[in-house]
Specification:
The chain is α+β, with helices and mostly antiparallel strands. It folds into two domains: 151 residues, Jelly Rolls (Sandwich); 111 residues, Arc Repressor Mutant, subunit A. Keywords: DNA-binding, Transcription, Transcription regulation.
Length: 296
């Protein structure tokens, strides 16, 4: 296997709410982080290990990774060359898809974190091949079919207890997001105020939040800042502006946390977004030329 010395990233966005990445990377350690999305991933080549919930799960080639929003984890790549294909469903896209697939049932969550399932692997590799060949032929239905595939393989659960827990945790996160939007000062007593809204002490709230999310409230707030930066960069703002909008002290701080979360630097992400936009503009221009009436 050829050794990878640099990272390669391909990115596609479907319906404005689903991001797909094909990432090639050398061996590198992981650090604990989380995402605000539902993630379905596949180890296409190489190997990794995933730490979550106090346990370590090996990820040989062909492994499927299933993670729910804000499940803290650390992925370490172990081979000299590793390739990972992953779908990030925004919570809005996930809710919409599940409502259509499972009408009347409570919100579904993924059962992972790491499984060996040939059916799901074939579905992921087929979708990846279609994207690499002609991304214009891949629509929202083709991507959300992966959710149905997970249900068919009993990798989803819909129950009232899960929905109740998700609602409580969502309320915690909403308050922490509000604290971030309010330019929360880490030295302030904002966490105390949030805890009081739940009738808890600061310690009780932090313990409950960590139990639900796998990380302390302050660390979660940083993850929300990273998500804000990602959206800002996707919208086309500069990296300096994105850092400021997200509330980071400087661009280098944003870069460290962004890479920890997404496995790439903000600059790398900015380039793949720009490349995708350029390709879309090129296709649009070509279509206009082909459909324009000729001069008589």
């Amino acid at each position: 296997m050829t050794e990878a010395t640099t990272r390669e990233v391909r990115h596609w966005r479907i319906d404005g709410e689903i991001d797909l990445f094909d990432i090639a990377a050398p061996a590198e350690p992981g650090s604990m982080h989380c995402h605000s999305t539902y993630n379905i991933g596949a180890v296409i080549d190489g190997a990794a290990s995933l730490e979550t919930g106090g346990k370590i799960f090996e990820q040989p080639k062909g492994s499927i990774v299933l993670l729910n929003p804000f499940e803290s984890h650390a992925s370490s790549w172990t081979d000299s060359l590793n390739r990972y294909f992953v779908i990030y469903f925004s919570q809005e896209a996930w809710f919409t898809a599940c409502s259509g697939l499972f009408p009347g049932l409570p919100l579904a969550r993924l059962l992972g974190p790491v499984v060996q399932d040939r059916f799901l692997l074939d579905a992921m590799t087929n979708l990846r091949s279609r994207l690499l060949q002609d991304p214009q032929q891949v629509n929202i239905d083709a991507v959300t079919a992966l959710i149905a595939a997970c249900a068919a393989r009993q990798r989803l659960v819909c129950d009232e207890e899960t929905e109740s827990s998700l609602k409580e945790t969502a309320r915690h996160r909403q308050l922490l997001q509000r604290s971030a939007d309010d330019a929360f000062d880490p030295a302030s007593n904002r966490i105390d105020e949030i805890a009081a809204e739940f009738g808890m002490s600061r310690f009780q709230f932090a313990r409950r939040f960590r139990h639900n999310s796998g990380m302390p409230p302050r660390r979660f707030r940083v993850q929300m800042m990273v998500a804000t930066a990602q959206r800002a960069i996707s919208a086309g703002v500069s990296l300096v502006e994105a850092a400021s909008i997200a509330g980071f002290s400087d661009q280098s701080h944003m870069s460290r946390e962004f890479r920890r979360t997404y496995g790439m630097t903000p600059g790398e992400f900015q380039r793949v977004v720009a490349s995708q936009l350029g390709a879309a503009r090129s296709r649009f221009g070509k279509a206009k030329l082909e459909t324009s009436p000729t001069d008589s």
